Every structure is written in structure tokens, then in C-alpha cells.
Amino acid sequence: MATQEQVAEIAEKIRAGKTSLGIEFGSTRIKAVLIDDEYRTIASGDYGWASHLENGLWSYTVEEIWHGLQAAYASMANDVEQAYGEKLTHIGHIGFSAMMHGYLAFDAAGNLLVPFRTWQNTNTHEAHEKLSELFQYNIPERWSIAHLYQCVLDKEPHVGKVAYFTTLAGYVHWKLTGRKVLGVGDASGMFPIDPVTKMWETGFIKQFDALPEVAVQPWKLEDLLPEPLVAGTPAGELTDEGAKLLDPSGTLQPGIVLAPPEGDAGTGMIATNSVRVRTGNVSAGTSIFATVVLERKLKALHPEVDIVATPDGNLAGMSHANNFTSDLNAWVNLFGQFAEAIGTPVDAGSLYGTLFRAAIGDDVDRNCGGLLNYPFRSGEFLAGLEEGRPLFARAPEARMTLGNFMRAQLFGAFSPVKIGMDVMTKDEHVRVDSLVGHGGIFTTPKVAQKILAAAFDTPIKVMATAAEGGAWGMAVLADYLWHADAAKDNLADYLDGCVFKDAQSITEEPDPEDAAGFEDFFARFRKGLAIEQAAIKAIDLESK
């Protein structure tokens, strides 16, 4: 709990505007985080929301966007007043971030032409295939350009009226500042970015405009896109109208300089200090993705790897798997039910800790002793699966021990994301110095870290600050506006020298025997995917 002196110190910083605000629109929560000039969270607020189906497509209404933003901001401002006795009239800098991709299209008068289509929609498969083939560059289904092109292919009536399209973060920023801009990281999920110019890939734009069904449109693609901006570039000021939209109470004053609006991948990179070339992060939850900042463009088209950009415009390769902890949690819950049945209930922390530690015990076989686990609760593009069936399998003579079983659970959970990582490290020879792991699975010391180090054969770091989320990362990007004009303070140096200079971390180096064991398990995992295909055919999705 803060002392009176600390409260007074922070109150003075609030009055002096030595603060930065980040607001991030996640898929289930809008979060606002206010930090001081030492990167400490001094106030926060949030608002829960959920997407809904509209005409068969996942969406959020414009009314929900603004109500949620205002509610999250008001919650944070109330936190400031309750904790420090200050009304929030001024903030040093502000930045907005959001889930990437999707489609928000407007006519020349600024009217939304169709309901917001989120990244969750997969009705863009034809556009994904045709554009990936045309560019020889992976264009995932969720990218904004895939949405626009699918509308063209489907001859949707609104297409000829499109004058501007953007992401959710870009939309909010535009309405608050009047500027049609986008942080280069978020922009890279709309359309490919040139890592040299940090602008759109002009060659791809020309190819797109030359497509017969596009050439007949009354617009050119470049005229529809926002302007990409690198981190540290002032991206406009909060207008009078914008201030009232953000804070209808009228307390917050206009004129505040905003940072370029970013995507959730970019703010995650900031929160884990992984924007430097040959570094990356692994975000593990219900799904999992691994991102590595690249030294060069990939040489070939790889559907397993999404290419995005860091907030300062370096390309990064991403391997994304839909499945991670759901099946693992189901097995842990089963052991928890057993403990209750014999009259010795165990709390969740002890249960997970005990089972996870068994996976790295002295008696385990490094390759899981012949046990296999498939974590596919849902479909998995990386494994070629349109649906999923969680499976555990073993040979008759496999060594069935608790340690081997839990090791197989963890090895199986990390295997799907390894498919895309192997494309980068083995096929494209991408070099990785270290990765930062973050997510709940890393709260049990050493276990997941050690196994991930074996899976990727790369040092894995876990930081004390890794619990900080994207809204905090966006607040840091807003603070970077104070530093970016100093030549020595490029984004990576700023993060190392200012934000994370005192951050505590633990690094786990890969154990050669563990790495060899994972490779053996992974070879059997890939070979055994036929079991999964058979299960999908044999077990109905709704079977109970």
C-alpha cells in the first residue's frame, strides 16, 4: 500500500502531466492503464464486452465501441480520483491499441458502410488463397486486405462506395484526432509493410490494383489505406470533439498528443521487451503464438508463418496455434477430482505445481517414454485440421508414469506452435537469441520454461513484468513520444535502458538431452497426426 508521501508524489505527477495512458480493446475486455514517468501503473480501469454474430459474421457495434471506451476511461479516472484526490484534466500522452486485422469501411462522408467485421471471421478463404498466390506472401484470412478483396469477389453493394478502411485502433484514433494514421505494427495486419521504407509494399499495391475485378472499382487501394507511422511519431492531438467522446463529463481537456495507434501483437512485444532483431516472445494461454523479429525477409511463401511488424517497423514472423491449455486443463482437473474423491482436496496452485514438476522429475524419459498427446480441442491450421479431437495415445510397452504422462501433456501442448517455428528456424534459418515467455503457464517456476527451451532449442526468459498486458505496453509507447527525438533512444534501446533497466528475469537455457527428447517426441507427433484425422471422422463433434 502506498505511503502518504508516495501518494503525494504521484498526485504531483498527475497534476504536472508526467503520465501516459494506454487503452487496449481486447476481444473480451477494454482496459485503460495510466502510468507515471517511471513506468509504474498508477491507475487502471476496464470494461467487459463480447463479440456477437450479425448476419453470420462476428462483430461489435459502434455504440459498444464508444460505450466501452468511455466506461473503461471513466473507471480509470475514478481510480485516479479515489487514490490520489485528483481529477484527470490532463494526461502527458495517450495511445490506443486493439485486436488487429478485421474490416471497418467508410464512405466519403465518414459513414460506416457495413457492420465492423472482426479478425474472428473466416469467410475470406478465397481472398486469402488468391492474394497469397498473387503476392507470394502469406495473407491470412483475418487480414484487412483479405476482407476488402472478399467483398470485391462477392460483389457486395458497398464496395464501390469505400473511401477509407482501417482497424479498430485506427478507427478510434481517427475519431479522436481527425488523423487517418496507423502504427506500423497494426498496419502490417492490414496489408504488407516494406521493412525499408516502413510504408506499404507498393509493388503489391500495384498488383492488387491490376486485378480485373479491382481495376473496375472507382478507387485505388493506396487512397483507401491509413498512413503507417513508426513508434515515437506524434500522431495528432485530441480534438475538442475527441475529448468529449473519450470523457463525456468534460473534465479531460483537448490538445493532448497521441501516439500512433497500435495492434495487440505490437503492444505484447513492448510488454515483453522483444522488439530487437533476433528476439521474440511466446504468449501462451487458450491459444499460443510465438513471434520472432527477423533480420531479413523470408525467402519463400510459408502459410504456417504470418509476417507482422514491430512498432518501429521491423518485420517479425509469427507462428500461431489455436490450441494450447484447454486439454491440459481438462487433465489437471481430472486429477483434482481424484484428490477430492479420496478426501484430500488440493488447491489449483498446488495441483498444477505438483503435476507440472512431475514432468521434469528425475525419473522421466526425456522423450516421454512413448506416450503421445494431441491437444486439439478445435481445428488447427498448422496441423492441417479443420476440427479437433483431444487424444492421448501410447504403444503397449510405453512407460506409463505420472512424470511421462505430464511431460507428454506439455510436449503435446507446445508441438503445434513448433510447426511454424521450425519453418522459420530450420527452413528459413532464422536466428533467435532468446524468447520471452509470458502467460499463466509460466507461473509454476522453471517447468514450462524448461520444456519450451527444449521445444525451440532456444533460451527462454520469464520476466517479472510479463504479467503486464497490452494496455500497459500501449502506455509505454505513448511515453516513448518523450524520448523518440533523441538519436540514441531507438525503441529497443529505450526499452532496455529505461523501461526494463531494473526488470528481474530468469533465463532457462535448453538442455541438449531435453531438446533431443522433444525432437523424438515431435517426430512421433507429426507421424501420428493420422490418428487425429481418424478420430475426427469417427467421433462426432457433439459426442457426449
TrEMBL record:
SUPFAM superfamilies in the cross-refs: Actin-like ATPase domain
Listed Pfam families: FGGY_C, FGGY_N
UniProt KW keywords: Carbohydrate metabolism, Kinase, Transferase, Xylose metabolism
Residue span(s) of domain Carbohydrate kinase FGGY N-terminal: 21-213
UniProt cross-references to InterPro entries, sorted A to Z: ATPase_NBD, FGGY_C, FGGY_Carb_Kinase, FGGY_N
Domain Carbohydrate kinase FGGY C-terminal residues, every copy: 281-480
A GO BP entry: D-xylose metabolic process
Top-level taxon of origin: Bacteria
GO molecular function: kinase activity
CDD domains on file: ASKHA_NBD_FGGY_BaXK-like
Transmembrane segments: none
Annotated family: Belongs to the FGGY kinase family.
Protein name: FGGY-family carbohydrate kinase
